Structures are given as structure tokens and as C-alpha cells.
Amino acid sequence: MTTLLNVKDLRAYYGQVQALHGLSFSLNEGSLTTLLGANGAGKTTTLRAICNMVRSTGGIEFDGKPLNNKSTENIVRFGIAHVPQGRGTFTTMTVEENLQLGAITRKDNAGIISDIERMYAHFPVLKQRHTQQAGTLSGGEQQMLAVARALMLRPRLMLLDEPSFGLAPLVVRDLFGILGKINREDKVSILVVEQNAQLALELADQAYVIETGRIVMSGKAKDIANNEEIRKSYLGY
Amino acid sequence: MELFTNQVLAGIATGAIYACMALAVVMIYQAIDHLNFAQGEMAMFATFISWQLMQWGVPYWGAFVITLALSFVGGIAIERILFKPLAKAPVLTNVAGFIALFAIINSSAGLIWDFTIKQYPTPFGSAPLLGSQLISTHQAGMIGVTVLLLLGLYFFFQYTRIGLAMRAAASVPESARLVGINTSWMVALGWGMATAIGSIAGMLVAPVVFLEPNMMGGVLIYGFAAAVLGGLSSPLGAVTGGFLVGIFENLVGTYIPGVGNELKLPIALALIISVLVVKPAGLFGRPIVKRV
Amino acid sequence: MSAAEDVVTEGQAVEAVPKRVMTLGTGTSLVVLAALVILPVFVKNFIIFQMTMLLIYGLAVLALNILTGGSGQFSLGQSAFYAIGAYTTAVLMEQFNVNYALTLPIAGVVCFGFGYLFGQPALRLSGVYLALATFALATALPQLLKLGYFEGWTGGVQGLVVTKPDAPFGLPISQDLWLYYFSLAITIAIYVASVNLLRSRSGRAFMAIRDNEIAASAMGVDVALYKTLAFGVSAGITGVAGGLGAIAVQFVAPDGYTITLAISLFLGMVVGGVGWLPGSIVGAAFIIFVPNIAEGISKGLSGAVFGVLLFLVIYLVPHGARDILRLVERRRT
């Protein structure tokens, strides 16, 4: 298995405040990796640092190529789709326009049209609402739209920031099912940040636990889920 | 009744100009959240350039197109050089920047072409349209050009990828970057287009108000009034606002005794303030919720 | 977030200015004061006139500084309040034979009223909207002054000639010199009052609103009251400046109070340093002398020079004259 994303000694800063203190981890092609940790541990910051949305130092390599000093919009062109916290929906635009925006860097019109149909197959509710303003969708629907929008890039790696946030448990199950399916069938590598550790560990094959800006634990998701000590001390369940 | 129809049509004609100015103001407002107080001066300067081109023998429509192109490039240059560095500065600094730009353009136009009033040609003639006394051919031309422009812009923003990208960059910049849009260039592009749209307004209104460095002062205030009436967050609103303000201005001037030319600006003022107070988001705009 | 509204964290309107850097130290203040008192004795009448105008514009810039630097509200419409003050003084002096010194407090009160009233709708506006509304006010006011209804009082387009007062008690000094010292006394009084205002409870309320309106209201600051109050105070001081200006220039006419004046005052504030009260006089010097020099070189050049200098200030010394003073002080130590 080849390494797709390699992060080394990542430090990130908000103004004078340092949020990440030398974080290192890697992610294999085709894997579904989860980054766990409490509120404020630095999970979101890690994702934002990968896309250069926060000031950071250290090495970030994607498929062997360094991402440092590249602008956010150029990093996207490497095939990294980021679904931000709060979903980043273009609320005033229609559902279909949101999907088109996901593919804005692509030039193959026929492929885009067929991909939109594919997304409607994954998420039938989006098809029903395709002319509706995206802001009128429910939270769960917006999260699906955000995932679909990210997939429109045909990404090699998808970064998901707390996809379960604010959603009803049933909707979360549904969404995570689809994420697993996308990972297996479309061969999209996924890095998902979650507070809902139990669910994320069920879904993922690899897991990292971070605390105050450092990786404190890593291993197979199954092993971590089975280790009661880790669960109790870091994951709180 | 004929007087009424006449005034409404004349109002639509001047409203077309206000609509263009309002649209230009709204486009820049959408891109950078600031009002371009120099929009009128930029339009005035462009109009002078077209006049100069015609003095050098370029035919009207040739000068028109060249001026549009120059305005587009000039708008982008102004954004890149002067305003991009101010993107994160406080509002006050930006307002000061726009005022500085206003002063520089106004003064340069005076230095280059002096402050005397100049005739400006119209390609449409000023005869009554189709023999009817209701509206002149130039007024009809103003309406026609504006309608074409609006249709073009609608098509651009609704059906082209770059139009979609510009809308996305204006509405949620962070998400736009996350789908790979270079939002910084979208802002520059918005400036270019706004400047070009403003220059159309300048060239259309110049035969009416005559060409001089201060020609756009009143027009800009009415453009602001139109933009505020329609809602600064809505291009469609800005256009509608433009036409409404044009009609309103003409009807008030005709039917309310004692309202002559000198009261036109106070009326625009009253309009701006009442809209801002009664319905700050305008007729078509979205309300803004503030948080700490 | 629903589609029907946008949630924004509003960009800062004005950079926060710490209170202690709003004024000059005692030593420097005394030196400046001494210079202002002694200098006019040795110069020509025309220079005295210009120094009077410096004080007057200094007051007007100071007024804007209280509004913007203090409470974070914009105004591109100060020329309107200046005009109302000027006309109040001129009309009272020429049509009703009121003593010139008495007209100034009246001008101040009238303008306070106008400012307070204008502050009511302005309450609902912030940042760029307020700039727009005041911009419109400044553009519209000269037109209102020209109206036929008021012509009996205001002289319409022609304006009014104002008589310059003699020095009182038979003092053996020229009219110009007397007016200068008269203006100086008023300026100092208003300056001291302003400094105290900003240091008072009200001043703290202004600054809390400037730095974060929502947080200020959460802390119990009556935002509506203090914002309108800031408008009123600012307009009142501007009105006094306008009244003094009318006496000094001996003439009022609608075209003397156009948007250009409003922009100049705004410019003076930015150049002097937003929120730094002593900068007001530096800003005033800038708006009086720069156009004089520029127009001497070529007619119509002053706008361009203004604009270019303003851009330079924004980029190089964003806090205006305050930055320059700091630089000088650092070099000395």
C-alpha cells in the first residue's frame, strides 16, 4: 500500500497562539482514516493546515509532492476535497449549482453531467430538491450536499470535518454508510475528523488520537475500539 | 395622461443610467463589502477617454468598445494595485482609499481635459422616436443599450462557469476557495466588469448632462439611492431600484409643485435615509445578522 | 443558517485606539500652547487669518475625531453641520443683530440638535451605510440652502456678508489678531472639554461601542443613547467651528459648504490620526496648506495631490501623524 498523505512535524498558529505542536501522521491510498480527540485538541486545525487555511510550518506531502506554500485553491486541484465544519453550503444557490461548483476546476462537461447523476443516485433526496435553494435544505440534507459537492471534484482524498455534527443519529448512520460505500467503491481515500469516536471507529480502518496538538495514539481502528483503557482515557466512552 | 406616460418613459430612460451605476456599485460591494465612492469618477474618466478617441477620429461605436475594454483593464489594475493591499484593513481605511481615488481621478480629468463643459455626441440622434412626442431616440437608445447589457449579464452569471464561480466567490469566499476558485482574481474581475458597466452609464448620460469632471456627482448619488432601495446584496434589486428611482424622480419633479432641479439631490438623500431606516436590506436584499 | 439571512462577523470599522495615546503629554502640550499664543504677534495679517482658519478646521476635525475615533461612527457629512453652524451665526448676526460671541453657543446648540436628530436614523446604520447616508447629506445640504423659502434669511445663492467684529474694551490689536485669540480661547476650551469627555464614563461608553457594539450593549451600555450623543456632540462642536468660520471668512454661501469640505475634514482626520485628538490640528494644517501649495503649481492639481498623499498615509503611516510623532520620539531616545 502506498502512502497518499504524509504529515510531518506540523505546527499551526492562530495569531500568537500555537494550536498544533509538531503533529505527524500518514494516510495510505484507499484507506479510511479517522482523527479523534476532544474539543480543542486540534482536529479541525489539522485539516485546515493541510489546505493551507491557517498559518503552519512542517512538511505536508501529498502523493510525494509537497503542499506547503500552495494556496488553498491550488491544493484543491491536487485532488483534495475538504468538507468544512458547518458544511460551507452556498446557501443562496440551488442544489444543482452547488454540485456544479464542486466540479468547477474540471473541464470535462460530459463527465460532470454524469457525475451529477451519480450523486443523485447516491443521495436521492438531492435529486428531488435540485432546483431548490441549498439554504432551505435540512441539516442532514446539507451535509449530504456537502459530501456530494466534494465528490464532484473526483477527489483522491476527501477531508471531512465533523460530518455528524448536529445531525440526528439515524441520519448519521445513513451518512456514514454512504461514506463507507464511497471509500470502497469509488476508491476515494477519506480522512474524517470526529467527536463521535464510537461511530468513527466502526467506520474507519485506521485511527489517530490527538490531544492538545499532538498525536498520542495511533493504530488500527479495531484495536483502538477494543482497548478499553484508551477508550476511557481519551475517547470518553 | 400623456404627460404622465411621457414622464414615466423619461424616468425609465434616466432610470436605465441609475440602474447601470447601481449595478456597478453592487458588483463591487458584493466582491469586497465596500461602497465604491469613486465609481462615478471612474465612469467620468472613461467617458473622457471615449471623447478623446472620437476627437482623434475613431467612430462612436469603435470608441465605445475600446473604452469598455480599457475600463475593464483599468478596473482590474486599480483593484490589484490600490485596493488588494487594503483587503484586511478597517472600513475607515477603505473609505479613505475610495475618497483618495475620487480626488485623484476628478483632479486628473480636470488637469488633462480642463473643467469646461463639453458636448458629447449620441449615436441615436435626439429626434422624437417614431414621430411620437413621448420619448426621444437617445432616451430609447439608453433604455435599449441598458436592456442588452442586463440580458448579457444575466446570461453570464446564470449560464457560464466563470459567472457561477464569481457568484460563489462573492457569497461564501471560504467555500469557494475549497472548491478551487481563485477568489482573489474573482474580486479583480468584478472590479473590471463594474468599471466597464459604469463607463457605459457615463457614455450614455454624457449627451444629457454634458461632459465635465463633475458630471457624475448627482448620477452617483442616485445610483447609491437605487442600490440601497433595491438592496446592496441584490444585483436584480439594484437594477429595479434604478428604474424605480428614475421614475420617482421624474414624477416628483412634475407633480409636486416647487420641486425643481435644486431639490433633486435632497430627494435622493431623503430616499436613501428612509429606505435605510425602514428597510435596511432594501426591497430585494437579504437581511444581515451580526454577531460578536 | 437559513437561506434568508446572512450571518456576518462584522469587520472592524475603526481600529481601536488605546485611551492613553489619545492625547499629548503635559510638556508637549505647553510648548504647543506657547507657540500658538506667541507666534501671531510676529506675523502678517494674512498669516494670522490662516492660523485662525487652522484653529477652526482643527476644531471641525476634532469634532469628527470624537465621532469616529471615539465612538467608531463615520461621517462624510460634517460639512452639513459646519454649514448649519455658519448660517446660524451669520443669520443671527446680520438679520437679528445678535452679538457674535453669543451666536456661537447658539450655533453649537442648534447643531447639537441637528446632529442628535440625524443620529436617530444613523443608529440603525453602521460602517459603510452610515458613510453613505452622511455623504448624501453633505451633497444635498447646499441645495437646501439655496431654496427660495429661506431666501429672506439666507440670501439664497448669493449668500450673506458677515461683519468682522472689533476687539472689545478698546484693546489696541487688529480685528484679525483679536479673532485669532478669540478662536484660540474657544479651541482650547473645547479641546480640554473633549479630552475630559473621552476620559469620562461617556468616553468609555463611546469606545466600548467603537470596539464592539454587541459586546458593549451586553455589558449594559445604552448603545442608542451614546451613539446619538456622540453624533450630537460632534455636530455641536462642528457647528461652533462653522460659526467661527463664518465670522473669519466674513461670508457664507451654499457653495462654500459642498461635499469637498466634508471630504477635506475626513481627510484631515485620517492624516492627523484617527482617535488622536492633537492630530486634529496637524490634519487641519494639511487640508489648509496642501491645496494652497498645489493650486499654486497648477489649477485643479490639489485633488490629485490630496489623493496621492492620502494613499501614502494609508499605506505608510496608517495612524497618521501619531505614527510620525512616535517615530520622532523613538529616534530621540
How is the secondary structure organized here?
The complex is a heterotrimer of chains A (237), B (292) and C (333).
Chain A: E1 3-14, E2 17-28, E3 32-36, H1 43-50, E4 55-62, E5 65-66, H2 72-76, E6 80-83, H3 95-102, H4 109-122, H5 124-128, H6 139-151, E7 157-161, H7 169-185, E8 189-194, H8 197-203, E9 206-211, E10 214-220, H9 221-226, H10 228-235
Chain B: H1 2-32, H2 39-55, H3 60-83, H4 91-113, H5 137-159, H6 161-171, H7 173-178, H8 183-209, H9 217-230, H10 235-255, H11 264-278, E1 288-291
Chain C: E1 6-9, H1 26-38, H2 45-71, H3 78-96, H4 100-122, H5 127-145, H6 151-154, E2 160-161, H7 175-199, H8 201-211, H9 213-218, H10 223-249, E3 251-252, H11 259-272, H12 279-297, H13 301-316, H14 321-332
Antiparallel strand pairs in C: 2-3
Helix pairs in contact in C: 2-7, 2-8, 2-10, 2-11, 2-12, 3-4, 3-5, 3-10, 4-10, 7-8, 7-10, 8-10, 11-12, 12-13
Helix percentage range of chain A: 25-40%
CA gyration radius of chain A, whole angstroms: 17 Å
Largest interface: B-C, 56 and 60 residues
Q: Describe the biggest sheet of chain B?
A: none
> What's the overall average pLDDT of chain B, rounded?
86
What's the order of the H and E elements of chain B?
A: HHHHHHHHHHHE
Strand order of the largest sheet of chain A: 6-7-8-3-9-10
Distance between the termini of chain B: 54 Å
Structural class based on helices, strands and sheet pairing of chain B = mainly alpha
Poorly predicted ranges of chain A: none
Helix % of chain B is over 70%
Q: Termini separation of chain A (Å)?
A: 32 Å
Number of strands of chain A: 10
Q: Based on CA inertia axes, which overall geometry of chain A fits?
A: globular
Proportion of residues in β-strands of chain B: under 5%
Per DSSP, the total helix count of chain B is: 11
State the shape of chain B. Answer: globular
